[in-house]
Amino acid sequence: MTGAPPNADPFDAGFGAATRLACRDCGAVYDPALGDPARGAPVGTSFARLPERWACPGCGAAPHRFGPASASAPEAEPTDTLIAAYHRVAADAMSGVAIGNPALSVEAVGFRAMTCGRVAGRIGCVVAPWFLNAVMLPDDAARWTAARDGDALALSLPSGAYRFNAARMGALGTLAVMPLVSDMAVFATQAEARDAATLALDALLQTNAAPPVETAPAKPKSALSRRALFGRGAA
Amino acid sequence: MPDGQVVNDAEHIGDLESYENALAGLNRRDFLAYCTGVAATLGLEPGFGVSIANAAVAAPRPTVIWLSGQACTGCTETLLRTNHPTLETLILDTISLDYNETLMTGSGHQAENWKQQAMKANWGKYLMVTDGSVPTGAGGNYCRVAGKTYIEAVKDCAAGAAAVISIGSCSSWGGWVSTGVNPTGAKGLNEIITDKPVVTIPGCPPNPYNFLSLVLHFVTFGKLPALDDKMRPKFAYGRLIHENCERRPHFDAGRFAMEFGDYGHRQGYCLYKLGCKGPETYHNCPSIGFNDVGQGTWPVGTGHPCFGCSEKGVGFTKSIHELATLKSVAPPNTYPAVATEKGQGMTPGAAAVVAGIAGAAIGAGAVIAGRLGKQDANAERDAPTDSDAK
């Protein structure tokens, strides 16, 4: 890292131009200063800009197996990492881009645990100067590893089925993202954007009374034993 | 259903035998699959595919009279390249294309007589379709067909039309011939035909699938689908390209192609900084692609920025690599019910959020309307497409 005191910078999932990451499986370190020319990443490529099919040079693990290279860094919540990543994007790639609303800042709104069909994870909204998106962070970070950026992912929410897009977010792996608002100039203040995000989540996650929509219960997932698999009455 | 799909009851399904060999020899399965696909494009629930199927086999084929003004014939060319259905299917089985200068066999007096006959025989019932802009300069003399100026021709034809459809940007708002110095005084059809609504399918070329869906909607329900303030069908022009774009995740993550052929361009990053007009252009190109050859067959999919061909004031007006600004979804396009339920005025932000949600919903028009606006429920039954959901 660039001389930042440990823990002063939250982990940004590899969006920083100099953020070094280490593979949790084999310990291989990715350093943007060196790049990975053999796998198509020129010198100076940040982790979040690695090619789509890039995998750990040491063990072939997918990018979501990578974490902070400094051993002292604590394990961060994925939501915090996501917000840190967008903060980094706001400061670097999106700075000076005229399309955003400078009155706004990056903020996570209303993230909660949710099971959408067969996908368990955390769903919420992210407000940034250049978008307001609904985001689904799967509990299983490998859930959409095979998806490419922009692939359509249909997710069942209580209010209906929606088209999300697969979005690779560095060491967070591949998330499901749904653009809700593009013209952020409609919001005068951060509070307005936050209210809109809350409204959006309410609308997306409210269950219709009739017909009753089956909300998949978030029952504790017991390890699938052979007995549980074959025995009908097993818990 | 948990996935939000609402399926129509089976009672709508007509005589299955009549579907066999429909649309010039499709088998029953392909025919129903095609009609369901049209329903999805129109933003209807899948069950409406059956209604469309019934109408397509039962309704008398509507007469279509197609006039061409200052056009490059690209709109006809794009129609020639449709596969669902193929053009011959369309003009032999779905509609009766009685006059089209590019496709008809007859010429001269024969063609003109046929047009007059078709108009007379179907007065008040035919569909009028035009491509190409209307030249108004020099008394309209830049374009004369059969001794009449094009202005006169469209006025005569529109007088007896049940519906008027502008296909392509030229006919919709003037297109490229109307930009710059505009020596011929080119205008869109809706500036000439002012006494009846002119539905527009802008695009250069427009997507034939949107045109076919519009026609089939007309055939099925006997009226036009929900339109926006520019008279474009909402099923096709309800959402920004920016919001449908497969490269959107790159934009969100600040990953931009900075020049053609650089690392980011080769990685398929966002083309905004190369001048992509996706943020100010309403179209469904990313969702349906062109020419039935699969995902990614549209300009951005091939690595070129969208230049906003369908949007007046953007396509052919702004320079190709000029940066785009963002457009909001106008509040009238959105559901009013949310804000009233919340007991507050509809702020532009709330309107934008609701429009965004509606735009991302999958084939669940009824579901969305039922959720967000109870009073839409009755309207939903009468007019299945008067919802904004896609």
UniProtKB/TrEMBL annotation, chain A:
GO terms for molecular function: electron transfer activity; iron ion binding. Keywords: Electron transport, Iron, Metal-binding, Transport. InterPro entries: NiFe-hyd_HybE, NiFe-hyd_HybE_sf, Rubredoxin-like_dom, Rubredoxin_dom, Rubredoxin_ET. CDD domains: rubredoxin. Its cofactor is Fe(3+). PROSITE patterns: RUBREDOXIN_LIKE. One of its GO terms (biological process) is alkane catabolic process. Gene3D superfamilies: 2.20.28.10, [NiFe]-hydrogenase assembly chaperone, HybE (3.30.1460.40). The keyword Lipoprotein does not apply. Residues 18-69 form the Rubredoxin-like domain. PANTHER family: RUBREDOXIN (PTHR47627), RUBREDOXIN-1-RELATED (PTHR47627:SF1). NCBIfam families: hydrog_HybE. This is [NiFe]-hydrogenase assembly, chaperone, HybE. It comes from Azospirillum cavernae. The lineage of its organism: Bacteria, Pseudomonadati, Pseudomonadota, Alphaproteobacteria, Rhodospirillales. The gene is hybE.
From TrEMBL, chain B:
One of its GO terms (cellular component) is cell envelope. Its main location: other. [4Fe-4S] cluster 1 binds at residues 72, 75, 170, 204. Its cofactor is [4Fe-4S] cluster; [3Fe-4S] cluster. [3Fe-4S] cluster binds at residues 285, 306, 309. One of its GO terms (molecular function) is hydrogenase (acceptor) activity. It is an enzyme of class 1 (oxidoreductase). It is found in: Cell envelope. It catalyses: H2 + A = AH2. The keyword Signal applies. Pfam families: NiFe_hyd_SSU_C (PF14720), Oxidored_q6 (PF01058). GO terms for biological process: anaerobic respiration. Belongs to the [NiFe]/[NiFeSe] hydrogenase small subunit family. Heterodimer of a large and a small subunit. This is hydrogenase (acceptor). It comes from Azospirillum cavernae.
